[in-house]
Amino acid sequence: MAGRAGVPSIWTATRLRLPADLGRRAAAGVLVGVAYYLGARLGLSLSLVEQNVTPLWPPSGIALAAFLVLGRSMWPGVALAALAVNLPISAGFVPALLTAFGNTIAPLVAATVLERTGFRRQLDRLRDALGIVFLGALASMTISATIGSVTFIASQGTGQLASAWAVWWTGDAMGVLAVAPFLLCIPLFRELEPWPAARWLEAAIVLALTTVVTMWTTHTDPQLMFLVLPLLGWASWRLQLRGAAPAALTASLIATWSATHGLGPFAGRSLLAQMLTLQAFNATVALTSFFLAALVSERMRFIDALMAAAAELEERVRSRTAQLGLEEARAHREHQIAETLQTNLLPDRLPDIPGVAVAARYVPATADLHVGGDWYDVIQLRGGLIGLVIGDVAGHGLQAAAAMAQLRMAVRAYAVLDPSPAAVLQGLHELVRELPMAEMVTLLYVLYDPAAGTVRLTNAGHPPALLVDGVDTRYLDGGLAPPLGVLAHWDHAEATQQLRPGATLLLYTDGLIEKRTESIQDGLDQLLAEASAVAGSDLGALCDRLLKTLPEDGQVADDIALIALRPLVLAGTPLSLDVPADARVLFQVRHALGRWLRESGVGDRDAGEITIACGEACSNVVRHAYAASSGDLHVEARLVDGAVELTVRDHGHWRRPADRGGGLGLTLIRGLMTSVDVATGPDGTTIRMRHTVGRTR
Amino acid sequence: MTEYEVVNVRTTDDVQVVRLCGEVDLTNAIEVRDAINDIASPDATTITIDLTPTTYLDSSGIAILFHLAERLNDRRQQLRLVVPPNSPLQTALNLTNLPRTIPVLPTLD
């Protein structure tokens, strides 16, 4: 009574919050009650003996389905309907009330137990089928059977409790097995994937065939009721619960109706035989349908899950592949940029410096696909000075290449301002301190003065330059400084060294001397030995030879940059220069000739006069031979019988001196030289000059 | 590439001494001329260009000397050159008859 008293207050509170929901639930409760009552009337109409022994009690199935689908709050509707059903057939109000209590509490317990055990009302797993058969039907209905049969026997005063209990129990259990799955399948039509028309047609055919076969087999003598089983199998297999439950219910109802009318297989049998046959049939129908439907559903869900997993896997593989592709593309692009940067940073052509040979090589590491940070440069500076740079930015790839690009331009900029090694290195040092580079930078800067025959150098943490001069091959270890930007302050000292004609200055990066298996000192020793051995060979051949013999097994572990400079031996051999006819080379030609004259022992005054004559001849070629187009200039000098023979040749077309407005240049040439011969032809002009010289040294 | 330097050495008794170091060829002759023009004082009666440290001077360099002399003459100033006797420039200058127009001294003194 306490519970009842509490109900209105809960309802009031609930109504305040959710009036619409409450109305819906009340309406649902009324509908459940009505359905329960009608189900009970149907059940009673199927009694085997008067209104006593009911083999199929649909209300228990209706109540359980209502609790499972609509919630246990439907219990008042069930309880009131049960009371209404029992009042007319009970021996009084109290027995009716007790029976109604039993009829309500049993499906409530069933619903609670099922929900606690994780039951899914879709009945699509084997465990759900097992749950509704054993927990929902067989176990829970012992409650209503016990309460009902005890009340019945007690109120009637006669009868056997055991048989009453058995009949009650089987009726309730069969009601659950036949009706509950059918009711549970109804929401599925809305919840699951809708059936196409063909599926509906198939369901209709199965249902019709089930009806016909059951009707027929329950109206004929031979025991053929099992013929309906294949149809139920079909329904379960093809349509699962939504096809099997209606068919099973139809078959059970028809069979029960036939039994109550003593038709076909039930004709002339004892009550017990009728009961056993009917219940066995109904149980078989129910179990066959639901187990098979559950198994098929489970298998289909398993296949769906498998397909979904496969699809997901495929999708993941696809997206990962795409991602990898992007990464690879990006890495490839970065590599290309770095490679392009570096290729463009290395001089594509070394300058032609008359009287000086320069050779350079760059060999990327064999195994490493990354672009290294090694670079070299040859800078022609004012006053005929030549700057040589070799540097190494630690690290690889785009960053190293970019750092290298900045440094290369910085070296050029500082060298133009002041070519002296100490000044250049000081500038670079400050730059690297100001613009911190993540990587360490080593650098060797050499300033070669062809006129003085000297090199001045500073070395910021780089492997030492090698002076290759026959037996006097050695490393130049002066002018040392730490790698760029490492220390805050460093007074950059420079070392000066004579570089006599024929000797070679070799700059390189650590790839040439570093090997996995040997110490750096071994590498240095080996380079010194190899270089001494080939000291006299052509500069390009010397570089190639070193690159061929030094790396282990031809494997280049790290990038190698190599640059070599050699003042050519001019004395004793004719001088031969081939340069572009450009005003900027006049200076170099003059200086190369000056060095040749000096090294050949020609006196200063004679040398000065010859140099001016050569300069005038070359100026004429530059100014007049090629008009606006480019061309070449060839200068040759040789010592013959105490005289210098000088030839300046071009492949252009001179305008006549008279057209040029005065021939001051030619006047000088003719005046300075002992003899002059100008030969102009279709292939160009050749000026042959001769100047007798008195040897002064 | 051809290097030169024009240095204003001193001015005494209306004589300005300008030193030309390095080399003069067709790549820098006009620059050298402009540099000397810029440095030449309008107050000096005589501008002396010391060619002692000049290591190379070709026809384009000689041409600017003529040009400078003419310009200074217009302003009633005189151009003089100093060329040591052993200078390699000596012969070239003589060949152009320059000493006839521009006084050439062996030393600054």
Describe this structure in words.
The complex is a heterodimer of chains A (697) and B (109). By secondary structure, chain A is α+β, with helices and mostly antiparallel strands. Chain A is 56% helix and 16% strand. In chain A, a hairpin with a 2-residue loop joins β15 and β16. The N terminus of chain A is likely disordered. Chain B is an alpha/beta fold and 109 residues long. Chain B has a single domain, classed as Transcription Regulator spoIIAA (2-Layer Sandwich), CATH 3.30.750. In chain B, strands 1, 2, 3, 4, 5 and 6 form a six-stranded mixed beta sheet that branches. Chain B is globular. Chain B starts with a strand and ends with a strand.
In short, what is this structure?
The complex is a heterodimer of chains A (697) and B (109). Chain A is α+β, with helices and mostly antiparallel strands.
Q: Would you tell me which CATH topology of chain B applies? A: Transcription Regulator spoIIAA
Tally of separate domains of chain B? 1
- The CATH superfamily of the largest domain in chain A appears as PPM-type phosphatase domain
Strand content of chain A: 15-25%
Backbone CA Rg of chain A? 56 Å
User: Total strand count of chain A, please?
Assistant: 16
Helix content of chain B: 25-40%
The CATH architecture of chain B? 2-Layer Sandwich
The rough form of chain A would be described as rod-shaped
Global Rg of chain B: 13 Å
Shape of chain B: globular
Helix content of chain A: 55-70%
What oligomeric state is this? heterodimer
Give the SSE layout.
The complex is a heterodimer of chains A (697) and B (109).
Chain A: H1 2-17, H2 19-45, H3 58-70, H4 75-89, H5 93-116, H6 126-139, H7 141-156, H8 161-185, H9 188-191, H10 197-217, H11 228-239, H12 241-260, H13 271-345, E1 356-363, E2 372-380, E3 386-396, H14 397-417, H15 421-434, E4 441-449, E5 454-460, E6 465-468, E7 474-476, E8 480-481, E9 495-498, E10 504-508, H16 520-533, H17 539-549, E11 560-567, E12 575-580, H18 586-599, H19 604-625, E13 632-640, E14 643-650, H20 664-672, E15 675-681, E16 684-692
Parallel strand pairs in A: 5-8
Antiparallel strand pairs in A: 1-11, 2-3, 3-4, 4-5, 5-9, 6-7, 6-10, 10-11, 12-13, 13-14, 14-16, 15-16
Chain B: E1 4-12, E2 15-24, H1 29-39, E3 46-50, E4 54-57, H2 59-74, E5 78-82, H3 89-95, H4 98-101, E6 104-105
Helix pairs in contact in B: 1-2
